[in-house]
Amino acid sequence: MAIEFHLISIFPDMFEPVLNESILKRAREKEILKVFVHDLRDYTKDRHRLTDDYTYGGGSGMLMKPEPLAEAIESVKKKAPDARVLLMTPQGEPFDQKKAEELSALERSILVCGRYEGIDERIRQYYVDEEVSIGDFVVTGGELPAMAVVDAVARLVPGVLGDENSSLEESFSEPLLEYPQYTRPENFKGHVVPQVLLSGHHEKIRKWRRKESLKRTMEKRPDLLEKMQLNEQDREMLERLKADPVNERIG
């Protein structure tokens, strides 16, 4: 299975440094991931290649014009009629692991990168299928959010990661933060690796990791626990952690 993204932006060169490194580069070389970047200025009609204009009714800042955006989306749709059009905007639905999984099931997506004060409302109403936000903050444009979406979604496509289980074990594959992890040396400046991880006892290691994930989530993101279907063992671990978070041990 291959997944295809079309990115519409007035700054197309922003994407290449990210797309030509690491996992994304290898995925593109294997043609599991296909990314096409469309320069919005190529869809303008005037000699100055303008993509923005003043807003009706006054106000500060410029707004992205509807004509180039409509032309760009329609042009891509001719080649990929089934592509879903996503607008990167702070007003959109929060992007999380569940949304990444949903998008990974689509063969083609069009990501529209806004700029300035946003886009003409008629594009939002008649050309966009859904709006996506990567957080409650404002960035200069939609390019960085779009790259975050591409990266998060691509990791879920079979063959992109070297280990097919890696994406399943990462934080947010279920609503728990990831447990602490260690590598060599065993003793780093007096700080040693927990003995249970050196024991070779797989069940004890599994329980330790689960406990540490619950502990870290309880301390840093307790809101995530509310989204979980906790089993009896999870509930027992949490009760012990709440009673003695420092000295709780896996037997």
Could you name the key traits of this structure?
251 residues, alpha/beta, Alpha/beta knot, Trp Operon Repressor, Chain A, 5-stranded parallel beta sheet, two-stranded antiparallel ribbon, 10 helices, 9 strands, 18% strand
Account of the 3D structure:
- This protein has 251 residues and is an alpha/beta fold.
- It folds into 2 domains: 3-154, 3-Layer(aba) Sandwich (Alpha/beta knot), CATH 3.40.1280.10; 174-243, Orthogonal Bundle (Trp Operon Repressor, Chain A).
- It has helices at residues 16-19, 22-29, 66-79, 97-104, 121-126, 143-154, 166-169, 202-220, 222-225, 232-243, and strands spanning 3-9, 33-39, 52-54, 62-64, 84-94, 108-113, 130-133, 187-188, 191-192.
- Strands 2-1-6-5-7 form a 5-stranded parallel β-sheet, with helices on both faces.
- A hairpin with a 7-residue loop joins strand 3 and strand 4.
- The longest helix has 19 residues, at 202-220.
- The radius of gyration is 23 Å and the shape is elongated.
**SS summary, helix count:** 10
Strand order of the largest sheet: 2-1-6-5-7
Average pLDDT over all residues: 92
Task: Give the CATH topology of the largest domain.
Answer: Alpha/beta knot
Shape assignment: elongated
Q: What structural class should be given to the helix and strand makeup?
A: alpha/beta
Largest sheet: 5 strands, parallel
Task: Give unreliable regions as ranges.
Answer: none
Q: What is the CATH domain class of the largest domain?
A: Alpha Beta
State which percent range the strand residues make up: 15-25%
What gap, in angstroms, lies between the N and C termini?
A: 44 Å
